[in-house]
């Protein structure tokens, strides 16, 4: 269970606890989940690893697959989709490991990733959160996997500056870091798609805010971790593949719009009403400008512009787990 250990029995408990508890939230991605779990088994190495799958009411045969092919994996079966944050918390509550590793169901561990992250955390006790270099299926950097808090200036840079102007002299003027020099460094936040977290940091900070159904729960969590004095570090010397947005493709609703709303909600939690009003104006204006650009692209026959318009203006609440 995720709680504080008394100094009297902490050492004995640590000797018997798993090194890592891997927590995977699943919703209707049976085949990706199978690949994810196989990668955990293959890449556990000398680590003592427990794997916990929290299923959000899948109806695609995920549960049967787990029972038949991964009987050693612990399972929490929800009767409804409770969202990524709440499901992750269920897994963390059950976890016994020294470290908790949140891994998306559409992600795969590559060779040495888990052991390298654990080794780094073992030798850097001030680091509360550590994440790998997250890559696409072709090995290229997944740029939305790490970045900076959504301030007014960064939101403006993200929405109004062309990509080639957002990164002068190696700096980022937007929300995300595009630099891929594989240097270990601190960030404001890392993506929850592959996130190793120290148990003590979770006990001190708390788990995900369950008021966040999806999007920005990882940004909020890292923010609270840093407020408690824990470092948030990206270790790009190890890779994890994230196929990205597979559950999102199954949802009804505007994923981009949901993400924008989540950014505004995060900002409002920690800033004044007047500052939040300015933030929302910048956000909405920026998206209007982008939509106009997509409309023009669609008019001249560019499929990308039409696809983005459809995503932005579709209706309904998203049900993705991540």
Would you give an account of this structure?
- This protein is α/β, with parallel strands linked by helices and 322 residues long.
- It has helices spanning 7-16, 30-43, 62-69, 84-94, 113-122, 152-160, 199-205, 217-227, 255-270, 273-299, 303-313; strands at 20-26, 49-56, 74-78, 99-103, 107-109, 127-135, 146-147, 185-186, 189-190, 194-198, 231-242.
- The strands form two sheets. Strands 1, 2, 3, 4, 5, 6, 8, 10 and 11 form a nine-stranded mixed beta sheet that branches. Strands 7-9 form a two-stranded antiparallel ribbon.
CATH class of the largest domain: Alpha Beta
Task: Quickly give the CATH architecture of the largest domain.
Answer: Alpha-Beta Complex
Low-pLDDT stretches:
248-254, 315-322
Radius of gyration: 20 Å
Tally of extended strands? 11
Count of folded domains: 2
Which strand-content bin applies to the residues?
15-25%
Helix segment tally: 11
Structural class: alpha/beta
Q: Could you tell me how far the N terminus lies from the C terminus, measured between alpha carbons in angstroms?
A: 24 Å
Indicate the mean pLDDT. Answer: 87
What spatial form do the alpha-carbon principal axes imply?
globular
**Fourth-tier CATH superfamily name of the largest domain:** Spore Coat Polysaccharide Biosynthesis Protein SpsA, Chain A
State the helicity in percent bands.
40-55%
The topology string of helices and strands comes to: HEHEHEHEEHEEHEEEHHEHHH
CATH topology descriptor of the largest domain: Spore Coat Polysaccharide Biosynthesis Protein SpsA, Chain A
Main β-sheet: number of strands, strand sense, barrel status?
9 strands, mixed
């Amino acid at each position: 269970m995720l709680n504080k250990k008394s100094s009297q029995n902490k050492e004995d408990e640590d000797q018997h606890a798993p090194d890592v508890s891997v927590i995977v939230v699943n919703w209707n991605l049976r085949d990706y989940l199978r690949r994810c779990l196989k990668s955990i088994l293959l890449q556990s190495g000398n680590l003592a690893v427990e794997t916990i799958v929290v299923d959000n009411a899948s109806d695609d045969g995920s549960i049967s697959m787990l029972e038949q092919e991964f009987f050693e994996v612990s399972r929490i079966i929800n009767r409804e989709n409770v969202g990524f944050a709440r499901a992750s918390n269920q897994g963390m509550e059950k976890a016994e490991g020294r470290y908790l590793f949140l891994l998306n169901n559409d992600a795969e561990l590559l060779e040495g990733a888990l052991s390298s992250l654990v080794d780094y955390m073992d030798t850097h006790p001030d680091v509360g959160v550590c994440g790998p270099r997250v890559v696409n299926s072709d090995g290229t950097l997944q740029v939305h996997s790490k970045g900076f808090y959504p301030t007014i200036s960064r939101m403006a840079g993200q929405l109004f500056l062309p990509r080639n102007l957002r990164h002068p002299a190696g700096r980022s003027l937007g929300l995300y870091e595009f630099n891929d020099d594989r240097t270990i460094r601190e960030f404001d936040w890392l993506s929850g798609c592959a996130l190793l977290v120290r148990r003590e940091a979770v006990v001190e900070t708390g788990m995900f805010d369950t008021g966040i159904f999806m999007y920005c729960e990882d940004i909020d969590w890292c923010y609270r971790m840093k407020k408690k004095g824990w470092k948030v570090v990206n270790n790009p010397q190890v890779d994890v593949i994230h196929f990205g947005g597979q559950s999102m493709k199954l949802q009804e609703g505007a994923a981009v719009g949901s993400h924008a709303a989540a950014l505004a909600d995060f900002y409002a939690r920690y800033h004044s009403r007047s500052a939040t009003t300015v933030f929302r104006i910048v956000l909405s204006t920026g998206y209007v400008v982008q939509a106009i650009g997509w409309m023009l692209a669609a008019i001249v026959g560019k499929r990308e512009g039409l696809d983005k318009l459809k995503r932005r203006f579709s209706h309904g609440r998203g049900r993705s787990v991540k």
